[in-house]
Amino acid sequence: MHQPAITHLAAADPAVADLVEGEARRQYEKIRLIASENYVSTAVLEATGTVLTNKYSEGYAGKRYYEGQQFVDQVETLAIERAKAVFGVEHANVQPYSGSPANLAVYTALVNPGDKVMGMALPAGGHLTHGWGVSATGKWFDAVQYGVRKDTGRVDLDEVRELALAERPKLIFCGGTAIPRTIDFPAFAEIAAEVDAVLVADIAHIAGLVAGGAHPSPVGHAQIISTTTHKTLRGPRGAMLMSDAKHAKALDKAVFPGLQGGPHNHTTAAIAVALGEAARPAFRDYAAAVVANAKALADALIERGFDLVSGGTDNHLILVDLSNKAVAGKPAAQALDRAGIELNYNSVPFDSRKPFDPSGIRLGTAAITTRGLGVEHMPRLAAWIDQAVAASDQAELDRIAAEIRELLAAHPMPGWV
Fold it and tell me: Which residues fall in the annotated binding site for (6S)-5,6,7,8-tetrahydrofolate?
């Protein structure tokens, strides 16, 4: 059952309680490979469900518009100080509701509508909020995009520099949602400095790896750092903005009162708990294991004939082009889900198919690492993926799902007992 127990919810609203229990069991019984998901600790779950959700706290610690902030101020200050310590930054804001509003706050703080900005194109692995056309950031700003090389699947920093020199953006984003390789923060910083642009590192996917020393840090290279607090950081659904002292005031004003009112105090508490966990030595072991598992899984998939974008991975994320498997990403993802393997279909660079029916799938190893799976399990996982993608009937998928349940029974899940 769900842990912490939801006995009061079950008594008051059995319909919702049944759905929560069903979701908890689903998470327990499936190999979860969605790169933007993880399992939070029971302590984070408990913090998220506390009476802090009852309190409204417009403003910042010591400068609120409502009374009764004696404890909320301490919670937020604790989260800020832990963020500064874990990431080694001069300033942190823990109030953004999620990653997209956090990125929008960066624009609000630094540029005006119509100004030129630059980010990675969505089909190449960037994020919607890095200036892609269907996003408000692509509609409100004059956005230019860089991509990856067709022959390597990697960013060509010479081409990025040429584009920046030609377009002279005021803001440059590096990072994204489907980048399997190390982000070269120093090289991006040099380009940004050459065109007098502010560099923003969006580390939403790799924040936990940065905190755990498994990926180079953008601190000292990017003036602004944006991140969610879930994914590899293993916290609640929320976000943070971090920066040098120079940009602190503008960012804070952009978050409040620029874009939002009172912060979600229960989430702030859970962020503080997650950051406390990230400061412990065991978190470094976890971050290293996430990368080791991803590399082992990538190697095992390559051995089975899968085509990986960029030829592999340096972090938690693997992007697979299924064109050579005669199956599209969406039906493959749906078959894998029925086989007990949860991931998402995803566009790949230079994809000939539409975004809602793309050629690829995206995998991440953060959640399975939290469950205790190691490199020794990755060849078997690759075999299951291979079998499920090629399966011709539901019976084969059911067999795989049963084997997965048997394996996961030996690997406890936070939030389920």
Answer: 122, 126-128
